[in-house]
Structure formats: C-alpha cells, structure tokens
C-alpha cells in the first residue's frame, strides 16, 4: 500500500547535499521547525522553501546516524512542557544558513500548554534517508538543548562499554589487577597480602631451601671434574677452562682454517662425491682433461679465449639463434619486400609477395571490429534500412524466413540491443579498485591507447534514472585518477578531447535495454529512454536467454534480484528501472510486471536449480510473491473478489501520483499471476498450487465469455470491461489450454478478427476500433503476434506458427524486431528495436516449457511466405 507519512529532501536540500558529497565538504543541520499546515495534513513538496504554517523553530537536540541503517539520519527536537498551544502536522529541517533541507508530514498531534491543564515534554523525530551520511555534520550545541531519557541512557551505556577506564601505571593512578605471585617482574600488577607474607617469610629464613634440579632452582654442590655425567653437581670455572683449552686445539666443523700441512687419502680417478680431493687427485684429473686436446686449447685460459671469455656462452648462442628466421619460403618472400609507409603486402602466387598502396579509408575499414561497424563507416546502414522499407508487397511475399537459425540469431540481436553506443575492442581499461555499487572512494587505473594525453576519460555512476559523472584527461602513460566516486553502477567513457568524439564505452549493465532509441528521437526522449528498462521487458528477455541456455543468464538474474525490493519496500517490483543499476526512484507499480519478474525467477529455479544465484533468487521470489498478495481482492461482497488489482501509482500529464490505486483487475495480469502460482506450485512452494486453482476458478467465473469464446479485458468495481485486446485472447488461450483445450481453440479462432496488414508487414494488431478501442490506431504488434504463434504451438499447429512468425521478418533489424504502424505519431508502437519483441520471437521458436508450452524448437527449414 502507499506510504502516508514520509520525509523528503527539498530541491535546495538535495542540491546542497549533492554539492557537499561531490566536494567532500559538510552540510550542517542545526534547527528543526514544526507547523500545523493550516489545519490540513500536507503532502511534502520538494519545491518547498518553508513550512506551510510554522509554529516553532529551535535547535536540534539530537542528530545521529541510525545504528540499524547506515543510510538513515535521525534528527530529534524536544519541545518543553512550557511551550505549546498548537497542532503539529508538518516538520522542517534547516541548515546553519537557514535553508530548508528536508520536509516531512506526520500524524496529527496537539502540543498543550501548562495553563491548559496538561503539560508534557514532546519529542519530534524526523528520519531521513540519504545516499551519503558522511556529508552531514553530526553535531549539536549541548548548551541550548535538552536531553531525552533515551539519550542519557544511551550515553551511560556507551560509557560503560567504552575503554575510558585507564589502567594504573608507575606515574598515573587507575585500575589494576591483583597478583599473589612472588616471582613476577610485572610493573602493572599489584601484590596481595599473601604475596607480601611469602616474601617476608623468605627474607626471615623461614623458607627451607631445596636441592637444585634441572627443572627448579635450589642449593647445588660445585665440582672441578671434566669427565662427570652428574646432573646434580655444578661445574667450577676450573673445569670449564680445562674443557675450553682442549676445544681450542680442534678445527671447527664449519669452514675450518687449517694450518701446517694437512693430508687426506687420494681417491680413485672418476670419484664424484663430497669427500676432500688431494692435490694428487686434482693433478691426475687435469692431465686426463688435456690429454687429447690440441696444443692451442690444452689450457683453461686458451679455452676461455676461444669462447670469447663469455661465462654464459651457451645462453648467448641460444639467444642468437632465437633471433634468426627459420628457413621458410613464405617468410623469405616477405623479407625480400622493400617496405615503406602506407604499403600493404599481398601474395601474387605461391611464396611470391608484393606490395600495394594502403589508403586512409583502407586503414579505417581494417580497424573496425564488426561487419556492422564497417557498414556504418561506409554509410550503408541507412541505405539498407531504406531499401527494406521500400520493398513492395509482391517482393515481400516472395521472401523466405530461415528457421534453421532464427532463435539463435534473435538471441544475438537481443544482446546487441544492449551493446554500448560505441565499443572499440582495441582499447583496454584497467581499474585498480573493486567498483561495487556502494563504493565512493578514489578510482585509479590505466587506459591503453596511443597518444593518451589527447583523450578524456569520464567516470559515470548510475543510480536510478540519472547518473553522476566526472572527467579527467589521461596522463602521458595512460593513467588516470578520480579523487572520489558516487554510489551506483559504474561505467567509463573515452572521448577525443579535441572534438569530444566518443571513442569507446565500458559498462556492465544489470538489465537489458528496452528499446534502441535512435539519436534523432529528440534529446529528452533519448535522455529518458536510452537507459530505461521496463521490468516486464527485463523478465521476458531473461526467460528467453534461459530457454536458450545462454552464458549471460546469471548476470541478468542478478539484475532481476536487484529489481525486487528496489521500489522502496521488500518484495516490491517497480514498473521501470535504470538498466545499469536495476534501481529506480519511482513507486509506480503494476501487478503484471511483478508477476513476470517473479515468474522469471521461478523459471530460473526450474532450469538452473544449482545456479550460482539460486539461493538469492528463491528468497527474492518469495518476497515478491508475498508482496503481490496485498493486491488481492478479499472482500467477498466485491464483484472482483478473488482477482488481483493492477497496482498503484499513476502518471497523468507528466505528474506522478503515488497515492493512486489502480483498482481495475485486468485479465492480462490474472493470466500472468496464474502461470506464476502454477509454476511455484510445481516447484514445491507450499500453498501455491491451491492459489493457482483458486485464481483459475475466479478467472473462469468472472472473465470468460462463453458466447464469444474469449475473455473480457478485465473487471472494475462497476462490472466487466467488455473490450477485446489481443493479449486477452492469446494469453487467455494459453491459460485456458491448461483447463479446457476446446476453449483454447475457440480463443485462437476469435483472434482471426485481429489479423491486420500495414505497409510493410502482416500480423496481429493489439487494439481494434470495432472491439472496444474506437480511438486506437491499428498496427502490427510483434510481441502480440508471437504470443498468438505460441498459442498455435500449444494447440499443436507448428505450420501456422511458422507462417505468423515468418511474416514478421520485414520488421527485423540488426538490433531485433520493431513494431509497425502506418501512423508515425502512434506513441503506443514506436518504430524502435525492442527487447520484448525479440525475446517473444525466441520463446515462440523454442519455448522450453515456458508457460507450459513443451513443444520442441521449430523444425529447421526455409519458410516461404
């Protein structure tokens, strides 16, 4: 449900906090004000610069970081019992310059005065969520404020648990520990009376001495013997001297310096061990070495001279050989070329090489990393797109679709939709720090590119729909350094400093971009839509990748898990997020989006039960499923009983209303939820098989139209919505196929009236003027058409499914499928490549059990249409 009481940063407060965060300075919060808002509970407005009707302003009594949540600042003010006589409905937080930083509403409360017969001290508290608590000064003036009982208790407890109790020393008084030891040398312990008495008795001769042993001190007898083995006698200096005199006559074992003429046995020739060699042995070995050498090489000096006096002769020879070209005809042909600038070698025959001129255009083409980049450079992309748009109907009907590779190709196009605007593989980036979303410290690294000082690198941090960024020029060695960063998903962009031309982008988005928005769509459209992901699109794209067993599944499941709860409450799923961070500031919820995200997590558990995200995905799935229950209609007297409402929040004329309740129950969302509950039940989640059964009963009772073989669009408090959108018949058919196949076939038959052709494609239109949408303009909807194809497959008609999918081929681009409409101003069907469209095409070709369609991948063939 929506939050009634809350605090927000004002526009001025947000700007000052952002400035303090970026500059590393502090924002000083000093005063709190309360007011009665002229008798009406207010809604906090970020544009406020003061309270609506202020009644009191005074210094803060407490300003601290919440110990249970490091992102929350707690501000408190105590209103003493001698002040009052007013209602409190609004709260304001001011800085030391008198600027309103935050504003909040609160439950109505009356602060009486003593003369009214009721006096009390009242504490007003504001809890404020910020991204960086370090940018706020947590300090109050104790001379002008009161302390609450909790504040005093906390300070006493803090003191008791602190280390502010110094130990005693030889120069300072303090706490000390007692000891009864009489042999300690400690200067930090205090002796007990017991230890003092023992020392006193020992001094007075009351201690009976014992004989010394090898383990304790005592009385010992001296001895001058040098051959004794006793362990109870002690050697005299005389005995020690005798032994040392004898020892000094011996040579040490370790590197002895012998004198005189020591001798050793002469070992046989060929002996090779650690024994000492005599001079006779050495001379015999030398004689054997030079016996067969020429006269000019029969001494070591002559041998060294012959080797150039090089102690590393073998290594020198090996290194020299390594620098030589192997005997190879091809390499020899290349080596014989007289190379020069702007020349490119080529072969004129076997082992025959020549040179040709290499132009600047040729160098540019060679540097490209993909065929798409080459087409862009040659400006052929626009020509190709225009050519496709001008194909006549006759030509189009002679085309074929390649079902051998359609699913695989669509998967590649789906991921290319998410590629950076520019990516140059030849330029690499190394970052020294681990850039988590919470990291805000320095960022350093190196970029490998020629002439680095001609380039500027930008560090970006995406949070919700916006991002912070900073840029620096690369150093001469390609290194860079940012003093700090911001919370959020980090990415980098490299520009040519001279013309601000984008060279490459490095990023790691958690979600798939919903649309590939062209640059000519308008600055504001590009700004809003470029990095936006609708959570439904993210879910269906992730499911398509799971069905294909793609290597990037785990990455985008992390994105799904990040989405759950990003709407501000546990388990919530917002309508859209930033594709980089999977976060949003919006509290715009739709039940269908939540059902799709939860289904994607459940499908992941079905396909990847031991996946690296399995534990987290299971927890997030349960949180989301429990959050969805808040939208179930439980009032038995309500005509919508047993169904789920569509969510909360509304955008109207560009203004967002978070308190709006979407009280209609759309059939589309009921189908989404049924497939979720059914899969969770099959995965063993307790109670969800029963939930699926109860929801199916409610759908069939309230929304099925028996006379027409279709489902109503939904139900409001006033009754059913009789309109007939495409997905109610297609998704409804997929749902009812699990209950009654004949009803599913009737749904498919009903869909025939929504078949439609535009100037460039034939398929199904989402809205028809004659079936409940008189103000809608028709077009060909790829997502909806693929849904009809999936229903055909569920009914066992793969031929019809292939025909539907093949006719959508003209709407395919290198970034996936676009929708088609003959009306350029139709906002419902923008002509942009869509991740949702492309993902649905993949699932229609190869469903892998998605929505209980267990058909195999469509057979490989060229299908003519």
UniProtKB/TrEMBL annotation:
Residues annotated as domain Phage tail fibre protein N-terminal: 1-150
UniProt cross-references to InterPro entries, sorted A to Z: 6-hairpin_glycosidase_sf, Phage_lambda_Stf-r2, Phage_Tail_Fiber_Structural, Phage_tail_fibre_N
Key words, A-Z: Host-virus interaction
Subcellular location: Virion
Primary localization: virion
Chain segments annotated as transmembrane: none
Single GO biological process annotation from the record: symbiont entry into host cell
Name recorded for this polypeptide: Phage tail fibre protein N-terminal domain-containing protein
Organism of provenance: Escherichia coli
